[in-house]
Design a protein that fits this description.
The chain is an alpha/beta fold. It is built from 13 helices and 19 strands. A seven-stranded parallel beta sheet has the order 9-10-8-11-12-7-13. Strands 14-19-18-15-17-16 form a six-stranded parallel beta sheet, sandwiched between helices. Helix 3 runs parallel beside helix 5 and helix 12 packs across helix 13. Bound molecules: zinc ion (ZN). GO terms for molecular function: helicase activity.
Length: 438
């Protein structure tokens, strides 16, 4: 059924031209200009961003939007085609989950399903099980014949979410969409996608959930926030999920969104608080066995109880460290994984099966992955890639699952940055609130 390729979509003339012609006789749609010209500015109808005309010139007469160029150029030669989608019928939903929500999760789930506000933010600590809170709401929406989507800025997170939801909703056809996906789009009442894909939907979702709103690039990207608001239906419900909200975003949304806190983890234990370890000029020590003793001794101690994740600020440094550690710790199994690693999926999977004692990594494992029996080390925590949000997420990789195994979190730093201080403060604050619920 070719018309299923366009229901609820927001496409450029160029994209529509690639579809079979008969589709346009089978569906209803409206067409709007892609770019609106206004005195010295242009407004993009796809991402909502305003650009000065002189920065958006294609030639003497035509203009384009530089903000959403990566989606295929939207310019004054294009129209945006906004396709309607049919109403769906109520149906029976098969839901298979062998666990139950904690009392605190259930309370939030209950509030989401009964309250009239249509903008919610769930602020739940890492490992609290914020995804599970959505289960009752998703069942309700799907059973009523409504359309739902879960979006995340990170492809890895989308993949993890897809695996989890296809397991608990085994009969649902859940479409997974991201930039690296080669399968063409087709209509489905359950969509999991990267936030960038939301630019291609228009008034499509009755329920839209954006996971990890503090992750790059969603945070501070007005275009993505515009895409989110317009991808959902006008009366649709929007839910933001985060473990560590960006302060500015929190300020902006405070009036519109109802905020739900979940400060205690699924297993009811508090978050491991990071040990801050000052290491003067650690970078100069990498080649010297003796000077690396603080790290080597720590790893030897930690691997007795747990597997160890070592976060490095760059791939280059990670590779250098891996060679040295392999030499200095010959009986320890060590590997590394980064965004440039072709075997990254396999390695992450092997780590899940506890195949390595030590896994060196960069920011790719900052969020969205759960390993059992893990301690976490951050080398060079002062580096700019380690924002407050990243550090809270990284610390949150420890002690997520299973029995308590003496998981530890250590930040090695040369300089105590604002991000380090704020991350520790936020973790302590959530633990204070969590203690009251224990
Ligand atoms: Zn644009």
């Amino acid at each position: 059924m070719p018309y299923k390729k366009v229901w609820g979509r927001r496409l450029l003339t160029r994209e529509v031209a690639q579809l079979p012609k008969e589709i346009l006789n089978q569906v209803t749609y409206q067409r709007i200009t892609g770019i609106v010209k206004q005195s010295k500015q242009i407004i993009c109808q796809r991402c909502g961003q305003i650009t000065q005309q002189q920065e958006a010139k294609l030639n003497e007469e035509e203009y384009y939007c530089p903000h959403c160029l990566f989606l295929g150029r939207n310019d004054t030669t294009q129209e945006l085609w906004l396709f309607d989608q049919p109403a769906l019928f109520p149906r029976q939903i098969i839901f298979t989950w062998d666990k139950t929500l904690t009392i605190e999760q259930a309370k939030i789930a209950q509030r989401l399903t009964t309250q009239v506000t249509d903008h919610h933010l769930i602020w739940a600590v890492t490992g609290a099980g914020k995804t599970e809170i959505l289960y009752p709401l998703l069942q309700l929406f799907l059973a009523a014949g409504k359309r739902v989507a879960i979006a995340s800025p990170r492809v890895d997170v989308c993949q993890e979410l897809w695996l989890r939801f296809t397991t608990v909703f085994p009969e649902e056809k859940i479409v997974l969409l991201h930039g690296k996906q080669q399968v063409p789009y087709t209509f489905s009442s359950f969509v999991i996608c990267t936030t960038h894909q939301l630019y291609r939907f228009y008034h499509a979702f009755d329920l839209l959930v954006v996971d990890e709103i503090d992750a790059f690039p969603y945070v501070r990207d007005k275009g993505l926030q515009y895409a989110t608001e317009t991808a959902k239906k006008l009366d649709g419900q929007l839910i933001y999920l985060t473990a560590t909200p960006d302060e500015r975003l929190l300020k902006e949304i405070r009036r519109k969104f109802q905020i739900h806190y979940l400060p205690l983890r699924f297993h009811q234990r508090l978050l491991p608080e990071p040990q801050l370890i000052f290491w003067n000029n650690w970078r100069q020590c990498l080649n010297k066995r003796k000077k690396m003793n603080p790290l080597i001794k720590k790893i030897q101690k930690l691997v007795k109880d747990n597997h160890v994740l070592v976060f490095c600020p760059s791939i280059e440094l990670m590779n250098e460290l891996q060679i040295k550690l392999a030499e200095w710790l010959p009986t320890t199994t060590i590997t590394s994984v980064s965004s440039k690693d072709k075997k990254r999926q396999e390695k992450v999977q092997a780590m899940r099966h506890q195949k390595y004692d030590v896994l060196l990594t960069t920011m790719i494992l900052e969020r969205g992955v759960t390993f059992e029996n893990i301690s976490v080390l951050v080398l060079g925590a002062e580096h700019e890639v380690f924002t407050k949000s990243a550090l809270v997420q990284i610390a949150g990789r420890a002690d997520r699952k299973g029995e308590f195994s003496n998981s530890q979190v250590c930040f090695y730093y040369h300089e105590k940055t604002r991000a380090i201080k704020k991350a520790v403060k936020e973790i302590k604050m959530m633990n204070k609130a969590g203690k009251l619920l224990q």
